[in-house]
Amino acid sequence: MYDVYKIREDFPILSREVYKRPLVYLDNGATTQKPRIVVDSLVNEYYSVNANVHRGVHFLSQQATELHEASRETVRGFINARSVQEIIFTRGTTESMNLLAYSFGEAFLNDGDEVIVSVMEHHSNIVPWQLLQQRKKIVLKVIPMNDKGELLMDEYRNLFTERTKLVSVAHVSNVLGTVNPVQEIIQIAHAHGVPVAVDGAQSTPHIPIDVQALDADFFAFSGHKIYGPTGVGVLYGKEQLLEKMPPYQGGGEMIQNVSFEKTTFNELPFKFEAGTPDYVATTGLAKALEYCAALGMENIANHEQMLTAYAMEKMSQIEGMRIFGQAEHKDAVISFLVGQIHHLDLGTLLDRLGIAVRTGHHCAEPLMRRLGIEGTVRASFALYNTKEEVDALVNGIERVRKMF
Ligand code: PMP
């Protein structure tokens, strides 16, 4: 039995008030709240283990290293990667995508080569490729979508040429909630011999992930969006590709031997992990993933699907409501506008009612342009949200609408 009220007790922040009203936190697409078990692990590690990893012979350093490397194994298991060599710790999805663009770009891309992305990408899967364009004249090709927010797969098929070297797409859109058919996207790309990177920032918290079943070549996600600490994320990559890719940053940890004449690099995954990692955060991330696994990702997904369907139905009945993203496969994200009310006004007035939503372009300006709007209000759900909170949102929107 999925007891959401019991689960909420694990998240102390959910019982606080804002403006003397109970907090209704619906900005989970931006970041999620943390269960006690995650915060406790951070405090405990600083209080009783803290030492730099991988370097010391002393007891604490070894204990910290064991925790850090055990977390890597937890991540491996959570996304079902083949080996821990394929799990690179980063600061988050953004750094994962920058690492990928830099290093994959160095190894495999030449002037005139093409990378396929989609129209609904977050800026972190657009701008790193544009930065690469300053060094190499690569061409970005864009998969278009229909008005429901679904990628046009026939158009996608037609984008391939012999210069296509990579496809890099979001698993779930942070604006539309569309769950893209990544399995099919990957199969099509592989038929052309082209690897695929998946931005899993918005899917990993909501959908069971199996990188081997997907046959994804790269997969990125952020710890803070899946109930873990800020400042830690993951880039999964297939070993045979990572082996051929050069380091992203230089420094400690990523080397084997350094001399002024010649430096050799460490083995995977350390080749990509220069400097002291946030080893406390990796422990916290592992706790968060264990927490999700204990609840069951399928159960979480079912709960959130129930909430999304309920919210879609209730919100559609509001006069003047426009919901952006009506895909058949849709995740726990609802972007909307009401009548002529500016998204910022709507978001600000909802905030006064204790309801936290996001407003703006959601770091997806090309998508806003495609939709012909400047921004939306976005409500995004997590494993701890309730139907009562959806009701509060709907009542809040009605109240604001009547004010205007
Ligand atoms: N991709 C998507 C789809 C996202 O929603 C986000 C966060 N909004 C990111 C990438 C970037 O994640 P982070 O800020 O944690 O690096």
Describe the structure.
The chain has 404 residues and is α/β, with parallel strands linked by helices. The chain is 39% helix and 16% strand. The strands form five sheets. Strands 4-10-9-8-7-5-6 form a seven-stranded mixed beta sheet, sandwiched between helices. Strands 13-14-17-16 form a four-stranded antiparallel beta sheet, covered by helices on one side. Strand 11 (255-257) and strand 12 form a beta hairpin. Helix 2 (36-48) packs antiparallel against helix 10. The protein is globular. The structure holds 4'-deoxy-4'-aminopyridoxal-5'-phosphate.
The backbone outline, from C-alpha atoms, is globular
Number of strands: 17
Per DSSP, the total helix count is: 14
Named once each, the bound ligands are:
4'-deoxy-4'-aminopyridoxal-5'-phosphate
Strand content: 15-25%
Look at the structure and give the mean pLDDT: 97
Strand order of the largest sheet: 4-10-9-8-7-5-6
Biggest sheet character: 7 strands, mixed
How far is it from the N-terminal to the C-terminal residue, by CA? 42 Å
**What proportion of the residues is helical, as a percent range?**
25-40%
User: Which blocks of ≥5 consecutive residues have pLDDT under 50?
Assistant: none
Radius of gyration: 22 Å
Structural class: alpha/beta
Give a nutshell description of this structure.
The protein has 404 residues and is an alpha/beta fold. Helix content is 39%, strand content 16%.
